[in-house]
Amino acid sequence: MTTALSPENKATAAPEKAVPEMSMPAKPKRNKFAFACAILASMTSILLGYDIGVMSGAIIYIKRDLKIGDGKIQVLTGILNIFSLIGSCAAGRTSDWIGRRYTIVLAGAIFFVGAILMGFATNYAFLMFGRFVAGIGVGYALMIAPVYTAEVSPASSRGFLNSFPEVFINAGILLGYVSNYAFSKLPENLSWRFMLGVGAIPSVFLAVGVLAMPESPRWLVMQGRLGEARSVLYKTSDSHDEAELRLSDIKLAAGIPADCNDDIVKVEKKNSHGEGVWKELLLRPTPAVRRVLIAAIGIHFFQQASGIDAVVLYSPRIFKSAGLKSDNQQLLATVAVGFVKTVFILVATFFLDRIGRRPLLLSSVGGMVLSLLTLGMSLTVVDHTVDKKVMWAVVLSITTVMTYVATFSIGAGPITWVYSSEIFPLRLRAQGASMGVIVNRVTSGVISMTFLSLSKAITTGGAFFLFGGIATVAWVFFYTFLPETQGKMLEEMDELFEKFNWRDSKSKKSGEVELETKE
To answer: What is the pTM of this model?
Structure first.
């Protein structure tokens, strides 16, 4: 047996052999390093979460202070999702140009300016401009956090680490709800301005934290900086062998010979900055890329079309429909929603790499269907008994709001970001992920800007029956179209999607998918 890993041999080994043989002692530190990188990158998601949470309560006081109707409130609430498209569209190219790390800094800086503008807004038009600026920052943040986290994470813990963006979205929502309650006692003309303006604080911490992050190893390879990429992979992989395997796969995907060991190499411009990517994604996709694109777009669409942002943004209004009359009662119940969402997303992070994406997603959406249909039924009962409060229906309405956000958070919430960020090939990842975010934000914007009108047209209960129907369609789509990606290397996704057949996975255990080549 060899003794190459003993301390004595390592001390006397040649310099070029010393670095590879040091992987075993450094393993715990590397795992912690990947964890820290994922935490710092995912903090960008607080920006979106805080805005969603804080607007649910702020619109109560904005409506009274600026004397505007439900039409303008809907637009004000949902328009940030549309504005974020600008950031999402630009984020893919920007992150390929300046790197994932500095794109995170840019996202925080833009949101900081937007939050300050909203805090000092003097009228509706000024407030809309502030949301325009903040929306661009949110678009950047939504796209770059899951991409960076997926690219630094080892396969063994990628699901756990890449669920962090959703964790921080939920943490931001909870902070927004707490901010609503904390500033609700101020005069109306100050309360909503403090609620919105305080959102600038997280972006400052984010900018400072990014200084401790390395650049994504995949972006470094795309720039031909193999030595730096190798160094990052040694720190973020579970073992030396895994680091070398990851580097080899990334080089292959970037068009660099696998046997190239130079620290710096020249990479063709089309590989380093994404030229031709849109043709490969949209005009001439391979069957595998087409399936990946449909899967990414589908999972983002159904995540939002099932009504989560309607519940989160308009929870005070929903609780008012359920029978809670005072602002204080509505805001306290909303804080409970934020707490439940945060607790269950934390639970989900520990199951993603144990149970797998597919079983969690299907269980989650099944729970959402039951919750939405029950919520629709209970709200309909409350709506038709205005003269006499039906206590069981009131309690059931509040309870099913909680079960809906809980089942969403344990699967559909985090898995959407995990799944869509890990299935695209390296050459298509930034732009492909940005397309998923665009669909996510457009769908969220449509739901946010039409929910009040929809509730008036078909009642609030009817709106949730509609969302329940959409969630049912989502379950069928996920069951038939999405393979399990647990434990797979990012560079294996083409083959996984090309060979997946849902019928082959029916009899398999949770988290297992048999791949059989189609004839």
So the answer is: 0.71
